[in-house]
Amino acid sequence: MVTVTESAAYKIKDLIDRDGHSDDHGLRLKVIGGGCSGLQYQLEFDNTVGEDDSTIEAFGVRVFVDMKSALYLTGTELDYDDGLMGTGFRFNNPNAKNQCGCGESFSV
Q1: Residue 89 backbone dihedrals phi, psi, to 5 degrees
Q2: Whole-prediction pTM value?
Q3: Which residue segments constitute the domains of the chain, with CATH numbers given?
Q4: pLDDT of 55-65, one tens digit each?
Q5: Residue partners of 98: CB distance under 8 A and separation at least 6
Q6: Please, are residues 8 and 62 in contact by the beta-carbon 8 Å criterion?
Q7: How far apart are CA 32 and CA 58, in angstroms?
Q8: 3-state SS class at 34
Q9: DSSP 67-106
Q10: Which residue from 2, 16, 36, 63 could staple onto 100, CB 3.0 to 4.6 Å apart?
């Protein structure tokens, strides 16, 4: 399904702690319609696991993905980059056929 790099997990944990969320929170990763390429990623903290959610556990954090989003995310790597060329989460999604210039939206 989705893999989470160590740097992404570290940043997720850092943000959960910074925002004062409890240990039962994880990162919800969704694909929604929108953006200049048609689909975009949405990230938010959540402590509710739906009955059709997949839960990915990596490096001490949890990432939740609903069944509909999973169709677009199979094989995706969630990474975090804190480099000179930009800071933020990066999605290495093998299903994305096109991606906008800013990397925030994609099409399949």
Answers
A1: -75, 140
A2: 0.87
A3: 3-107 (2.60.300.12)
A4: 999 999 999 99
A5: 37, 106, 107
A6: no
A7: 24
A8: coil
A9: HHHHHHHTT-EEEEEEETTEEEEEEE-TT-SEE-TTSSEE
A10: 36
